[in-house]
Fold these 4 entries.
Entry 1:
Amino acid sequence: MDNFNLYAKYYDLLYTDKDYSDEASYIDALIKKFQDLETKSILDLGCGTGNHANLLSELGYTVDGVDIAPEMIERAKQKFSENNGLNFYLGDITKFNNEKQYDAVISLFHVLSYQNSNTDVLKSMQTAYNHLKPGGLFIFDYWYGPAVLTDLPQVRTKEIGNDEILVLRNATPKMHYNENIVDVNYAIEITDKVSHRTDRVNEKHSMRYFFKPELALFLEHFSFTKCKFYEWMTFTEPGSKSWNALTIAKKDI
């Protein structure tokens, strides 16, 4: 996962325009809507640099985050060192086990879509299941297949900067229809505004898109119940225009 260690250096800048606060409030609303018992503790699988975890902590939850990239975890610990309601672990979500159980497990920003094989999807869900208390909620988002195939991925360019650096990122997709995978090939240029030096990084992020029946089957394997499927940031069912979708499921009591 060396790509993610490189990516972490520019991660927060690239997603300055992402509304983490609204997203944390949405997760809070989902929990309050579907949880029968009071939810106090959350495990965040694939926490990145900890932005969702920190905001959920500010909403009153105790949050533990885990990520596979050492630099992501290091950055999260640095950013939120004064928040006693947060803990961060280095680990692979397909293997992670801290021998604790939580009221809710979340996995956001399409972490499940990075699990390309059925084996890794099942292992990730097993991790969530093992770390949930009976009656606990599993909440995760992903690329939604009907929308991906309706509105095919396009070449995209993003430019963003701060006082120190300018980042230019070109994304070129490659479809693998028989595997339900999109390879997103990133060409990133990072220019230092003082020295005018430009570094170049190439990365490939392989993203799996999912369909409702297959996710329902995966969740049924672990006896998750009361599964709901939504378009991201809404309480309506996903459709052919819903590139980002979310599922919430409950562990049997």
Entry 2:
Amino acid sequence: MSARLLLIDDDARLTAMVGEYLRGNGYAVDTAGSLAAGRERLRAGSYDALLLDLMLPDGDGLDLTRELRADPRLRRMPLLMLTARGEPLDRVIGLELGADDYLPKPFEPRELLARVKALLRRSEPDAAPDDVLRFGRLEIDLGARQARIDGAPCDLTGHQFDLLVVLAQSAGRVLTRDQIMDALKGHPMEAFDRSIDVHVSRIRACIEDDPKAPKRVLTVRGTGYVFARKQDVDD
């Protein structure tokens, strides 16, 4: 069964072109030209991924991103931001709010297709259900693609979960940003806009008792990050 995508963008020409291209590559694609129409589509149907323009006639795509990540039914939906905004800050804000990836306009349809494939691939469980990494009170369930603290699920996007897994599977070893990017195959991340740092910050907000004084994901200044091998030793 083909994956079903929702594209929310008010550029009718772009929407028609992208929709036709993605359908030609085996995807079912619904479109909406405004936030209101997009919300209605999301209420009425079920989608495997969302492609969302930031600049829409009736509001900002970032507002919808906030809504999705607060909705228990939709919070784990893979989300690709499409943006003509040139400022890195806009992309950083989108990632902080829970977007999994971004693609600046104008873009090549083939690159969009590659990003969509990567998003969907990362959202599919590919590990045995009992494959769980344990670090004190933190559990990382690879089969369920879920991190838990004291049994309570952590609110991470698919992108953030994969980054956490990369760090945890190299516990005790310092990873540079380049090594992290190499490990996250299919994750377009650009070091210059500090997107890795943004995702690490979000991960810390979910798994650390005090994100400002982290004990699980540690910064190695000027190099990268290290995931602590021993955690909660005093608990």
Entry 3:
Amino acid sequence: MAGLWLGLGFTAGKSIAITLWSAITAPFRGQTGGATAYKHVAITFARSFFGTASIEQIQLSLSENLRGALLLSPWIDFGTDHESFRTNADKDAISAESLGRWAEALFGDTKMDKYTNPTDAPTGWWKLLPVEKIFIGVGGDEVLLDSIVSLAHKMKTEHPDVLVSRVPREFHVEPITDFGLGLSPGVQYQAMAAWLNQTFSQ
């Protein structure tokens, strides 16, 4: 794996834009959605404002909470034994096999903990998240569906403003794929746009 680049952009202390870019090399060349291996890193950065992570973290001092955080098809659990891996195996753009290779390339022998695997976070961990609103988008045809829904449920019990947008018959990060191919915006894309407009136009 080569060229992981992380960029943070700040706007008047209100938001952080995390840009993830990766130069995909073998064994990932030619596979759909290679950059998805880094999506869960956004959660790690958000939580790294507090405590000590097992991977290098960025410490930020905030005078106020971030206005919002958008998580689209977040890869936040490295297990592949969820039921959705079986039911959506032939529907999604990614597979258990590709996720396994990405996990190995990204973490290797790194010990998994609540930062690298947020679904293992203890009760109360999300209460300290310095974000006012959270959007979690997931497609009904994703192999990651079960783990994302599980995390969303846990976050909703601890955070006052979490919107979960579950769209039937959409695959992993479909809004991004559609946009890249120049296709008309789908249901999830429109839901994301509406949430972003409402959250950041205030």
Entry 4:
Amino acid sequence: TAMAAQEEGWVLYYWPKLAGRAEFIRLVLEEAGEPYTEVNDGIEAMFFQGKHQEYPALAPPLIRKGSFTLSQTPVICRYLGRRLGLWPQSEDDEWHADQVNATIHDFICEGRLAFHGKDFHASYFTQQEETKPYIEKFVKERLLRFLGHFEATLKANDGGQGFLVGDSLTYVDLALLHALRATEAQFPEEWAAAAEVTALLRAFQQRVAARPRLAAYFRSERCKPFEGNSMM
């Protein structure tokens, strides 16, 4: 029944053993204090062998509650943000949050693509040598451009001392937190070298990650490690 479905917790389906795109979703659920279960088994069969029977979904991550399912990471985060109280307070801020969210996912997508310069769908480990020039090009031409944009975006709201939009935390702040953590994990030397031009972002990362529920999550076994390639 509908009531029974509402009483069920969220289920998150994703590949095992890595943060990946699902980390965007985990951060929203964790900050909201929303119970969820993560399922990592049977993902290939579910999405690539036709055993996913609900509303069609191309690939994980996917969330489920009762009979309702939803895929596509930025869509899931917007949906959960609105449902769980991590939503901008004005219409203008809603649209600006949407804009920033799209740019964050562009950033992660470009970063991932750089690690798959020969074959986007093949494992990075099958093309490590061939894709080195693409990684170098991303670092040289795109990494600081994106980080500089995020620094300016943060500064545009209250001088960068608070959040990306408005005066309270929203889903897009959590998306930026993950993007910054992924950048630091994937490109530690470049991240360190960019300290002067990312001062606001670093302070933002520290204060958001220190929020009690997020800090507890990062210390827990629920927090998956970064894979070490593809900003994943």
